[in-house]
Amino acid sequence: MLRTDEILSTIQMLHAEHLDLRTVTLGINLGDCAGPEVDLLCRKVRQKIARYARRLVPACEKIAGKYGVPVTNKRLAISPAVGLVAGHGHSAAVAIARALDAAAGDAGVDLVGGFTCFCQKGISDADAVLIDSLPEVLSATERVCASVNLASRRAGINMDAVARMGRTIRAAAEATADRQGFGAAKLCVFANVPEDNPFMAGAHLGAGEPEAVINVGVSGPGAVGSALRRRLELEPNLTLGELAEEIKITAFRVTRVGELIGREVAAELKVPFGIVDLSLAPTPAVGDSVGEILGILGIGRIGAPGSTAALALLTDAVKKGGAFASSSVGGLSGAFIPVSEDAALAEAVAAGHLVLEKLEAMTSVCSVGLDMVAIPGDTPAETIAGLIADEMAIGVMNNKTTGARLIPVPGASAGQTVAFGGLFGTATVMDVRNAGVSGRFVGFGGRIPAPIQSLNN
After folding, report:
1. Contact 366, 335 (CB under 8 A)
2. CATH domain 18-191 topology
3. Suppose 284 and one of 51, 133, 291, 425 were both cysteines; which one would form an S-S bond, judging by CB atoms 3.0 to 4.6 Å apart?
């Protein structure tokens, strides 16, 4: 039985500490919509999404009202769109994306993920069509998000695909120059992408998943930060191990709330409940920041020596607390450090305390990677590819998911501020040092082999 103080602590998290359910994501398998006739294909896509998703928003609002826990985002994730694109060309890929966008709009959801393909060992004809369509797809749609898996522990890193995505990311930004390159904010590249991630831009319904499923992503940086402050006010001489224990307890409570809401939404929709992704997902709001937690842990300036170790402590404690709270943990599950979406991180970049190289080091212990990082618009495509390759290497060598969501802001230079709005926040354009000198490495192409540790059968 929960103690009275634990119940009161959970109530405090709900009402004063920015606790919300960051996303309820409905996964839908669209494999049976594929076919040779594009208009029919698109019609079937819209019909199937409508059948499963029309009650998603009302269900989320009903359950959120019941428990007093806001559901910030309602989203869709489809089976990889490369299966729909196969056998078709560029115009069909754009038409499919428009159909997805319209269906998501009809359902009232915020975003739809799954315009996705997998290129860790090679690029198929369908993969090439999907990738080449991305600049137009991301500029012509409002809600569609895309992702491409470029590397895995088993396959290594496909450098041909990395180079191609370096060019594609820059093209997507240029195609949305009127929106400060926002198209690139809806595109993420991965190593070891999970098949049940509810967070954008990498959400998709992977192989082996049900026909439809509810996956949820929690929030909680504000709750963790407040819990740490309270403990330190009472016991200022705590050790890092004792602070980690406090994070574990708070992560347990946050995860319990997330799974409760997710299971009830799934029951309301009569679809299976999948996983709870227990990642600490920050927002631009003050008090809801992973960066602020690092400050509470004693890092006076984010990016200073010790920042990576503090983030490792936080990530590990969140995983341990969440795993104890639920047997259905999945997705990314850890701590996010999206620069523009975290007020403290954005402030550290603006002040010059957090530079790109230190941020990359911190991605070795967080949930994803270089996330929502604005860079100068004239950054060469080969340099973007080099940044991607570094993140892929961290993921492959450490057997973890890493990603890159880089936004080369057209016309912007290092130090300028760009505002993307809403949860996407505001960012200072980061300086990319040694730009333009990675071309020969990227140009070799081929595949960086998988590490010997991958041979573990």
Report:
1. yes
2. Anaerobic Ribonucleotide-triphosphate Reductase Large Chain (3.20.70)
3. 425
